[in-house]
Structure formats: structure tokens, C-alpha cells
Amino acid sequence: MKKSMTMLVSAILLTTVFLSGCENDSGKGSSSASPLASDSGSKAATDAKELKLKVVIPHFGGDPTGTLVQQEFEKEIEKYLGAKVTIEWTRIPWGEYKEKTQVMLTSGDIPDIMLVRSQDNIIKYGEQGLFLDLSKYMDIMPNYKQFITATDNNEQYLMNKNKQLFAFYDGFSNPSDIEPSQYAAAYRLDIFEKNNIKVPTTLDEMYDAAKKLKALYPDSYPVAQSEQYLGYDGILNANHTNGEIYWNGKQYVYGPTEEAYKESLVFLNKLYTEKLLDPAYWSDEMDQAKPKASTGKSFMYPLIWSGYVADFNANKEAGVKWALSMLADNPKYGKSWKYGSDTKGKGLNNGYGLVISAKAKNPEQLVKLVDYQYNDKMIDLLMWGIEGKSYEMKDGKKQYLPALKSSADFVGELAKMGVSASMRTRPGIVFTPQERIAVYTSVPDVLFYNNGKAQMENYYMASDKYGGKESIAPMDRAPKIMLTKDDNDRIANTMTPIKTYVKESSVKFIKGEMSFADWDKFQATIKKMGDYESILKLQNDKVKK
């Protein structure tokens, strides 16, 4: 009883926090009105000349209020709607957002517009009548409709079984032919050059290099991990498999049942047994990895977020020289798959989206307001900023101003202006569609090693140039399917114990605590633990034929 009462009180307190928006200086959230504080409660109050509304969205450290881009955004939406627009903003840190806004959804007391992080919640609460059904407003949202049309299998992927659409989903626009990744392998180039060691292009060469480095630097563990979410993917991608259920180009399969998954563990076991693999591989995050990268304890990352290499090299005191490279290949399978490569054109991802309260007044204006964020003009404003202030046109293409690019903190300068490509400050009603070229060109150049030489390059562009189409992982082009709450519950109930067992067993295989002679027994246990094949069938049956 005491526990239930405590939970109830906590929920009430959290709800109060949302509605008051009073945590500006604590880092827990912020609230501001632009240009005037709204007295409309959870509804939009408007006449022919004024629209007042409340918005709850996440923030990422930087408040766009008062920035050049945010001010221009507000002017543009007022011009487009032909009305004075007053928005009361509540911004909640991304890491806390889902948990805190869940209280609002459960209570049913939501603002006029808010971001919802889970499609399960979007469908669930939409069907309960909490959100506006956008499918009834298609004729007044031409910009968003373009993104819907461009999304493969859009009805199943974005709508419920009754073809209701409850959210403006997260969008992207890539007006180019490049399909890059922001991930790569990384090598301590100064050490490789000093000792005349070949920068690896294959897994066998990675092993050979690790052996030589271990002999030269016995206190090191040459092969290291940067962050746990990457798991073994640097090795799995070389062997064209995955640690989860994934799309292999023809159908959904379960990676740990494939022979290629076993080969990956055998390779990691060889590294571990010969003390070439960091024993903290299963626990290291970047906070632990960064000191090792600058003190000669680590020399290779099979897979890493490329931006970290710029951080490594920026440490002048350490005096290290790291370089990126394409992931090492296994010639048996061909070119290694890139990790998370972007697609061309426009489209939507259904993980989260902006919803409009079904109780909001003047829903047509709110629909038009959010739809306008999907207009090319507004995407350019939010992602690139203002011509002459943050970017210029050269040979018919946008590029950031050279003076900004050469500044000591280029990304910081973009953030000060409220440019969304900085990823530190997000203007507009988050999330707005990301224009990929703006993102690609907002990162600093880094050393990228290819074909025997290293040179300063944009790592997005380099991953496309050197990887080619054959490096695109099929799971990054998987058919768009939508899983219902019942589907997700079924998948979780079946796969959670299997995934736990596979994760624990994989570590044991790598450490030699389980013998590869027992691989068949391992596979049999997976089958006994749950009917994963029925989950594969469920997902494959949803693929549009």
C-alpha cells in the first residue's frame, strides 16, 4: 500500500512539473513563451489573428530561444499561417523525456503539440482518442504528404489497421546520391607508421597487426571497444551477419543461428586467448575507452563513431594520431558492411513523432504549422541557418561559410545561431526533418586511411566514396513494416530470454568458457528456449509482397 501511494504521489508531482515548466536552471527541463506566455491551459486559444499553443519537446543541451534561426522560424510560421503565433515551450532533456512524458500520456492531460517517443504509444493513445487523426487532414498537409509518399510500405509502416495516422513522424531528406555511414574502423596511425605495420584491410591483417603490437607493447590490448551498443558489429559486419534478427536482403533471419556468427566468435576467441582483445571489451564505454586511446593501451577499434577520432587527435597533450578506415573485410564474404548507412531521397522513420491533441482548438492551423516544417524552405532554414550568416551558395550548392568552418569551434558557432545540424541546439518543434548534406558537412574533417595513404577528409563522404554500394548492409534497407503492441509483446516474450542466453553464451565462447565443440548444443538450447522461428515468420509475413 505504501509503495502504491508513493508511486501515485510521484506521478502527481511529475505531472505538476510538466504543467508548470519550472525546472529551467536544474537541467531537468525548461519552459519559455515566445513571444508571450500562454494562458490557454492545454488547449490552443485563437481568433482570426492570433494562435496560442503549448508545446512539449526534448532538448539536447542548447536552448534555441532567441537564436537567429529560431527567430526566423517564428517569423516564417506567422507569415505562413497569417496569424500571430504565441508558443509556450517546455523542453525536457532527451535522456529523461520518455519517462517523464509517459506520465502526461497516462493522465491524458497533454499540451497542444508534443513529441511521443514510441510508436506503440502513438498508436495506443491515438486509438484512445488522445491525438488528432491526421489522415483526415491530408488535403492541408502537402509537405508531409510528400514524405509519406516517399516512404516504402507507408500505410502499414505509419498507420494503424484502420489507416489512421496519428503523428508527424521523424523525417529525413538526402538530396544526393551518397549513402554514407558515420561509423568506421580506427587505427593509431602514428604507432602503425613508426613500427612499419600495415593498416589492416582484412580480419587476418587485423590479427597479424595485433600480434605485432602486443609484442612491441606488452602492457597493451591492441583491439578495443568504444561503446557497448556497437557490440561485436565490427566483426559481425565483416562476416555479413548480425547479433539480432535482421533482414539479409531476402528475408528476416536470426544472426546467432548462422555459421557466420560462429566464425565471428571464433575470431574474437583467438584475439582474447592471445591477450590481443581488451578484457574490458564487454564493459567499456567512451569514458573508459578515451584514456586508453591516448596512452598507448589501445591501438585498434573494429568499429567506432567517427567523430571520436577527431576528439582523440584534438588531445594535444597526448600527441596521438588516429585515422579512420573502412571496416576490415573477410574476403570469404566480400566487402564488409557499413554500420547504419543513410538512404537517398526523402522518407520517414516511425520510432517517434509529433502529435496534436485531439482537444486542441483550431486543429487545422496546428496541422498546417507542423506540416510547414516539412517544406524544403523550412528544412533549409532549420538545418542550414540563414544565407550569408551561416552558409553561402557556391556552384549552385549550399556550403557553410569558410570563416565558420575554420573557427576554433565550428559546431559551437552553428549552435549559437540555432542551426539544427549542430545537433546541440534544435530549433522549431523537434523533431524536424534532417537534411543530410547539412549534417554531413557540419563535421570536422579527419584523417581517413585508404589504399596505403591517409588524408584529411569528411568522414561521411569518405565512407561513401571508399565503401561503394556493395558496403551497404541489407538490414539498413530492410522493408518498412509496423509491429503492433501485441506483436512487440510477443517478440519480447519470446526473444528476451533467448537474447539473454545468447549474450551470456557468446561471451563464454569468446573467453573459452564454452567450447565450440558444443555449438550444436548451443543451437538446440536456443530452440528450446523459445520459438524464434515463429517470430521470423511474423516479420516476414508483414513484408509487402
From TrEMBL:
Please verify whether the record's keywords include Signal.
Answer: yes
Keywords of the record: Cell membrane, Lipoprotein, Membrane, Palmitate, Signal
Q: PROSITE patterns, from UniProt?
A: PROKAR_LIPOPROTEIN
Residues in the signal sequence: 1-21
* Record flagged with keyword Signal: yes
- Give the InterPro entries listed for this entry: Bact_solute-bd_prot1, SBP
PANTHER family registered for this protein in UniProt: ARABINOSE-BINDING PROTEIN-RELATED, POLYGALACTURONAN_RHAMNOGALACTURONAN-BINDING PROTEIN YTCQ
Q: What is this protein called?
A: Extracellular solute-binding protein
The protein's organism comes out as Paenibacillus germinis
